[in-house]
Amino acid sequence: MVSLAAWVRDPARGVDVRLDLAAGETVALMGPNGAGKSTVLATVAGLLRPAEAHVRVGDRVLAGEGQWVPPHRRSVALLGQQPRLFPHLTVRENVAFGPRSAGRKDADLAEHWLDWVGASALADRRPRELSGGQAQRVAIARALATEPDVVLLDEPLASLDVEAVPEVRRLLRRVLAETTTVLVTHDPLDAMTLADRAVIVEAGRVVHEGTARDVLTHPRSAFGAALAGVNLVEGVVTGPDHLRSPDGRELAGTARGAMDLGSAATATFAPSAVAVHRERPGGSPRNVLPGVVTGIEVRGTTCRLEISGWLADVTTAAAAELELEPGRDVWMSIKATEVRLDPA
Ligand SMILES: Nc1ncnc2c1ncn2[C@@H]1O[C@H](COP(=O)(O)OP(=O)(O)OP(=O)(O)O)[C@@H](O)[C@H]1O
Question: What is the structure's pLDDT at 189?
Fold first, then answer.
């Protein structure tokens, strides 16, 4: 196994990111939409040639120092959300394509990798005759059949049906164990369970890197906090147990350290601590704040809502009953005991 070092600088896209992976390491590359993740992967794969790129795999220079190695000679496999199999070729021919282009006539190679992903029985089918999970397994076989030094996975589970995810995830775990891999994912659980390290990029820059657990449990950015499933509000101390966010929202919480009036602090609270109402709730000592629903993600029996920048988890039944939809005005209530205040 070999190391990967990449420095991608693309002023046109506002991207300036360095990645260093030890041989065999798996790094989860995470960040909001437009942060630059795909730009980094495409550059390493040789599909994009930004203003400046230095890419080294082991002791081979793929980009920089006057070199630009074309994609098919990089020994770098990129697997995206969509399997992108050739529609007119059978599954076997799809898997054999990479090694054949590289001059390897070894017919057993395709069979070997199809077997490895548990897709031997599908060898004579065309891509249109495959389910999403099957097609992604074949795409993994096709990527591995070239025996790449580096594997780049761009949200490989994102477009799969929920039922197909566990099997493909299991397969990916085996891939990761055998190669140097960059995994772009939005799923904190995948980052924690599949990756050795996580690198968070925001607006084209690395803002945090470390073990996945550390990055996700001690988030340094609103994105990291949202990933970890925690609301993180940065603000100013306005009372012994109070914080005001830059947009003027006041939160009462439980202080975990000395809170000096006027100093910076953060409030963190779980999405499950947020109750959502159509009408302004009265009564008990709670934080009661108005908001607008900006996002809804159904996750089985629960529903993750984004309400004016904060995350709230409600049951799917409750979301239906409240007729929640993007644009809807709602009220959030959060118990002060559920809001943790930390001096910055
Ligand atoms: N073909 C292009 N030409 C110019 N700018 C682009 C192009 N594609 C993307 N960009 C810009 O480059 C920046 C980085 O985009 P990139 O696709 O790398 O982000 P990303 O982190 O992969 O996002 P996502 O999670 O949405 O896939 C963004 O500002 C984007 O608008």
Answer: 65
Which atom in ligand 1 lies closest to the alpha carbon of residue 186? 25
Q: Report the nearest atom of ligand 1 relative to the CA of 35.
A: 21
Asked whether residue 219 falls in the same domain as residue 238, the answer is no
- Pick the closest to residue 203 from 25, 17, 344 (CA basis): 17
Closest C-alpha to ligand 1, atom 24: 33
User: Are 218 and 306 a contacting pair, CB within 8 Å?
Assistant: no
Q: Which residues line the pocket of ligand 1, CB cutoff 6 A?
A: 12-15, 31, 33-39
Question: Which atom of ligand 1 is the closest one to the Cα of 201?
Answer: 21
Q: Whose CA is nearest to atom 2 of ligand 1?
A: 13
Q: Does residue 191 sit in the same domain as residue 55?
A: yes
Do 119 and 141 sit in the same domain of this protein? Answer: yes
Substitution site in 10, 38, 81 for ligand 1 pocket (most atoms within 8 Å of beta carbon): 38
Q: What are the strands of the beta sheet with 264-269, ordered from one edge? A: 250-252, 242-244, 231-239, 264-269, 340-343, 254-255
CATH number, domain at 258? 2.40.50.100
Q: How far apart are CA 341 and CA 336, in angstroms?
A: 10
Consecutive 10-residue averages of pLDDT for the chain (344 residues): 96 95 96 92 95 95 93 91 91 89 77 91 95 91 91 88 78 88 85 86 93 76 74 89 94 85 87 92 84 89 90 91 93 91 76
- What is the Å distance from ligand 1's center to 8 Cα? 13
Gap between the Cα atoms of 197 and 210, Å rounded: 5
Cα(187) to ligand 1 centroid in Å equals 19
Looking at the structure, tell me whether residues 189 and 235 fall in a common domain.
no
What is the ipTM, given to two decimal places? 0.94
